[in-house]
Design goal:
The protein is α+β, with helices and mostly antiparallel strands. The protein is about 35% helix and about 20% strand. Strands 5-6-8-7 form a 4-stranded antiparallel beta sheet, covered by helices on one side. A two-stranded antiparallel ribbon has the order 1-2. A two-stranded antiparallel ribbon has the order 3-4. The chain is elongated and about 75 Å long.
Length: about 240
Amino acid sequence: MGEIGEQGERFLDNQRIEGNIQEMLDGAIQFVNRNMHTKTIIDPNTGKREDRTDYPITALRESILNALVHRDYSVHTEGMPIQITMYEDRIEIRNPGGLYGRIKIDQLGKVQPDTRNPIIATELEVLKVTENRYSGIPTIRRAMHEYGLPQPEFLEERGSFIVKLYKCRENTLSIQNEISKNNELILFCKIPRTRNEICEYLGLSSVTYAIQTHVMPLVEQGLIKLSIPDKPKSPKQLYYSV
């Protein structure tokens, strides 16, 4: 039976995975594999067939393993599970505890971080479950790049560390972002707006650039109207969406 999430997303599959770290890692990978698409791609040069999943398995494995190794296991997060949520365009892995020590988000993969659970990390290295406690982030980035997908997002939010992997290719994601921004601007112009108001809303310094680049294409598509259409350069001009 499906569930409805906080953002209105519908979950058709829901599973709680327990056990030791190896068992939870294997179970999580099986869950993700079951819920993502796999398509067969034929190399036009060699004719070789290759099965391609929505996300590179290497990036998924490292993201989930990173969450298992570095989450907060203290009493402060007791009962708070690692969450893997699959959306239409992305997958999110959220683990309790946030970043540990002095490292910042923009330093991930560039400097050696403090280790919240050094005993767990060392044991997994000995057991060959993980190669190196510091190699996870670079491996995720490299796998996504080799797959031709956008770079992963790493966020710290409300005491949790979040990894977001997008399955859209770079150009597709850019188009989706542009559509989203246009829709937000159209919604903003439900109330007639001046040039300056639009420029300020977009966070731009040039009014002319804001109008020519962001508004006029929507005017040409009929999505935004001019209050004085016969005098497009009028200082009293207002822009509104239908």
